[in-house]
């Protein structure tokens, strides 16, 4: 489970609920998820009663529990959002249209100028490109203008009561209670997204404990207030912890030669830059190809869309959010904030994203045809991409791994 949550992209990265064995064989996987009960106020109250001794065993004092849980109420809208997030997927180009819009670029440049000293100091301290830190800030909270207004305690308690990912969210709730006990934030000020992510850069509570820093020296690791200093430094500290390479790119847009072997794409194939150059891969704007170690070719929109050569810093950003669309948005927004151009290639905009039920059907049909996607969860991850590639190869298609409606129709 990743450490951070993005308001607009949860649907692209989150796995779906585990399937219950007590279901009718006639139900689709999507229907099984939708039919699970959401919960009740009485059930939530009973859960809180049972939770208190577990929290006390974890070291939370009774007075902290009294103070923090007094106003917590069951919020069914939070559960609905958690259950239904995968219904709202977008294509990579639709997502980038919003994530790296001209307004977000312009607002980011103003934010960079306004906080230039802070961001340069953070870059020096942690070795993480300030434009990448600013891009995370821009995507996670629109440069601090939308940090979320839901009680973190209520959100986490509601999701811990729900059976779908109860253990994860109970761990987050206990971590949040310890933050309050530590005195870094009040119950009232601890607010964020419906999923419990907090502050300018949307830290989950356990990640706050592991990576938040007191950059402004006031004795608190404050990611919630109007001052973004601690939050921005914490994001840089997080990326540094996961192996950010100073001075290296996340990736860059490339052109592929005619006759390129599309079997060589995806993150699972890593080659030295010299090998990619020998295969005819070139930077889209010309010039020398940067060499930051082993690299992969990524086709987020299939063979008819933009192509990227990605380096190890791509995988570091993935620690923030595992969705390729998110990582490309962060990297490309950072490039735009640095003064770089928009993506040059066109996208196959006539295509639409598969719905949840269609993604699950695709996985089921791939498996039935002998191309095992390693599960039916509606998530188009590396295993499903590999299965699509295998199907495409076996049927004389370009093996770009893109899970399109055309592929689903062919499987039908």
Sequence-ordered SSE layout with sheet pairings:
Blueprint: H1 10-13, H2 29-34, H3 41-57, H4 62-69, H5 76-84, H6 92-99, H7 102-114, H8 116-126, H9 130-141, E1 150-151, H10 152-161, H11 166-182, E2 191-192, H12 205-211, H13 229-241, E3 251-255, H14 273-278, E4 282-283, E5 296-298, E6 307-310, H15 312-318, H16 324-337, H17 356-368, H18 382-394, H19 405-411
Antiparallel strand pairs: 1-2, 3-4, 3-6, 5-6
| Portion in helices | 40-55%
End-to-end distance: 33 Å
Shape: globular
CA-atom Rg in angstroms:
22 Å
Per DSSP, the total helix count is 19
Unreliable spans: 1-35
Mean pLDDT level: 90
Number of strands: 6
Largest sheet strand order: 4-3-6-5
Largest sheet: 4 strands, antiparallel
**Topology pattern, helix = H, strand = E:** HHHHHHHHHEHHEHHEHEEEHHHHH
Oligomer state equals single chain
List the defining traits of the structure above.
single chain, 412 residues, mainly alpha, four-stranded antiparallel beta sheet, two-stranded antiparallel ribbon, 6 strands, globular, disordered N terminus
């Amino acid at each position: 489970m990743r450490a951070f949550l993005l308001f607009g992209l949860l649907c692209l990265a989150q796995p779906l609920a585990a399937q219950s064995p007590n279901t009718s064989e006639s139900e689709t996987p999507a229907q099984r998820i939708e039919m699970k009960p959401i919960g009740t106020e009485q059930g939530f109250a009973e859960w809180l009663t049972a939770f208190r001794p577990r929290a006390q065993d974890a070291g939370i004092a009774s007075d902290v529990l009294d103070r923090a849980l007094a106003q917590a109420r069951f919020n069914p809208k939070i559960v609905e959002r958690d259950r239904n997030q995968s219904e709202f997927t977008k294509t990579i180009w639709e997502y980038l249209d919003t994530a790296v819009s001209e307004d977000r670029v312009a607002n980011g440049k103003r934010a960079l100028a306004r906080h230039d000293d802070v961001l340069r100091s953070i870059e020096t301290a942690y070795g993480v490109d300030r434009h990448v830190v600013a891009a995370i800030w821009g995507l996670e909270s629109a440069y601090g203008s939308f940090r979320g207004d839901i009680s973190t305690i209520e959100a986490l308690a509601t999701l811990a009561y729900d059976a779908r990912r109860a253990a994860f969210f109970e761990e987050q709730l206990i971590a949040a209670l310890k933050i309050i006990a530590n005195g870094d934030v009040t119950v009232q000020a601890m607010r964020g997204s419906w999923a419990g992510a907090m502050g300018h850069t949307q830290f989950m509570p356990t990640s706050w404990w592991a990576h938040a820093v007191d950059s402004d020296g006031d004795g608190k690791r404050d990611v919630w207030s109007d001052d973004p200093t601690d939050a921005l430094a914490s994001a840089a500290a997080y990326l540094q912890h996961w192996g950010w390479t100073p001075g290296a790119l996340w990736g860059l847009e490339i052109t592929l030669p005619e006759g390129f072997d599309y079997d060589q794409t995806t993150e699972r194939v890593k080659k030295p830059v010299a090998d990619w150059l020998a295969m005819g891969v070139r930077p889209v704007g010309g010039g020398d190809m940067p060499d930051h170690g082993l690299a992969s070719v990524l086709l987020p929109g299939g063979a008819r869309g933009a192509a990227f050569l990605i380096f190890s810093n791509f995988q570091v950003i993935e620690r923030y959010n595992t969705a390729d669309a998110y990582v490309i948005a962060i990297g490309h927004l950072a490039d735009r904030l640095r003064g770089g151009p928009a993506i040059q290639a066109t996208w196959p905009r006539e295509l639409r994203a598969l719905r949840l039920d269609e993604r699950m059907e695709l996985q089921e049909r791939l498996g039935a045809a002998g191309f095992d996607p390693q599960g039916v969860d509606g998530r188009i991850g590396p295993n499903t991409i590999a299965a699509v590639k295998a199907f495409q190869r076996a049927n004389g298609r370009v093996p770009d791994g893109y899970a399109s409606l055309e592929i689903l129709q062919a499987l039908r």
